[in-house]
Structures are given as C-alpha cells and as structure tokens.
Amino acid sequence: MSACGSSPTGDSSSKDAQCPDESTRGSLVVLAASSMAPVFADAEEQFLTTHPCVRAVSFSYGSSATLGAQIVNGSPADVFVSASETTMSTVSDSGRTVNTTLFARNSGEIMVNATSRFADTVTNIANLSKSSNPGIKVGLCVTTAPCGDLADSILEKSGSDRRALADTESPSVEDLVSKIEMGELDAGIVYHSDCVSVQKSKRTVCVSIPSDVNATNSYYVAALNTRNVTQQFVDFVSSPAFTTSLQSKYGFLAP
Asked: Domain limits at 125?
C-alpha cells in the first residue's frame, strides 16, 4: 500500500530525489524592502513549486537602508532586495554582493484613511498642509528610507517640505501604511504599489500625484553569495514573468 502513496507537497525527501546533487539544495534567507511584502507573500508558493531544489524561503522586511546596514555589518542572508539604488550601491561597495539587477521602479501616491474627516478634502499635495486642512495628521517615511527620500523629492517639486507637513515619521512604508489604515494618521505619501495592494480593504482611498511633481525610485535584487539556490531566486525576481506581474498586478513600473 505504501508504494502507491505520494510524498506530500514540500516533503524534503521528495525534493531531495529531484535534486540529487546536495550543492543545489537548501533554504534561503531574503532581506527585502517592505514594499515587496505583498508581492512575495503571493509569489512564495509559486517559487517553491517551480524550484524544487529550494526547501524554504525566510523573508525579513524593513527599510532598505536598515537592511543594507545589517548586511554590511555581517548579517547572514542570501538575497537582498532594495528599493534604493543608493543603498544597493553601499552594499555592493562593501563587497557583499555577487551581482545586482534592476528589476522594477515605483512612484509616489497620497494615501488617505477612508473614514477620516479629510477623506474628501485631500485632492493634492497642498491639501496635506495644516493651512489647507487644519487638524490633519500626516505621516511620512523617515528620510533615510527609500519611501521617505521619494516623498522629499515630491515635496520639493511641490514647493513644500516635510517640516511643514509631517506629524510623525515611520521607519518603513509598511509601518506608514498600517498607521493610515488604522486611522492613527489621516494621510501620508506612500508608493503607488501600496495603494494597489490595499485597495480591496476599502480602509483607504488614494490620490494620484501628477507626473510633473511625482518621483520614482528603483528596485534592485542582489545575490549575496554564489549558492545555486541564491541565483535561482535572483533569476526568478528578474524574470520577464515576474516583472510583468509586478506591473500588471501590483502597480510597479518597468525598470
């Protein structure tokens, strides 16, 4: 009877049979920008299914600058996904990367809590100011985070700055989005991809930023070692199928 059964999905013995060379097997640790969390949550199962030599992937999310500093200081990881070209350059200059690939870009958007009394009065960057909407609570990512740097570029083009608008600063865009969703903040400048990811919840509304004052940032994936499974993940992220999905499903821009 046992000869008729099949190994359950993800069973290590089944994967070992498909990958007899031990050097091609293993688990992965991926440090990734927090804006990639919804994407990898959806894509993890597909990656593991199509890459049987990879037993598991452990993701850790945060600000690219924070994760980059951890890598430079010796934090063990296999792959780094950064939302900042500057941060990726810093990690590369430290000698920690084997290769890097640009795979996507993102743009800014205003996110507003749907139940906020300001939900109908925020239609542009100027409406985030206290002079336009007295009492409004606005959040931005810290300047060192890619989402904060993006916001600063947008504010500069709009003739404003964070000192005039921000009531609080978040360490990552994931944290900022959560505060807006929960109503701790009325509004903030996030990524367009964040607006796409949370639109089904109906807890927020988003306002587009005109192209003449908007800005973009670049996403890079880097292998931090020469392991076969590491390169498999890098190739997956930079593949046409994955990048096309990023644009059509999650609102990212082409690299």
From this structure: 107-216
Given pLDDT bands bounded at 50, 70 and 90, which one contains residue 25?
confident
State the total domains in the chain: 2
Cβ-based neighbours of 190, under 8 Å, separated by 6 or more:
108, 109, 110, 111, 147, 173, 176, 177, 180
Could you tell me the CATH number of the domain that includes residue 54?
A: 3.40.190.10
Integer angstrom CA distances of residue 94 from 12, 67, 89, 133, 234: 35, 14, 9, 46, 19
Do 87 and 112 belong to one domain? no
Would you say the pTM of this structure is higher than 0.85?
yes
**pLDDT given at position 170:** 97
Q: How confident is the model at residue 80 (pLDDT cuts 50, 70, 90)?
A: very high
Per the CB < 8 A criterion, the answer to whether 64 and 35 are in contact is: no
Same domain, 128 and 188: yes
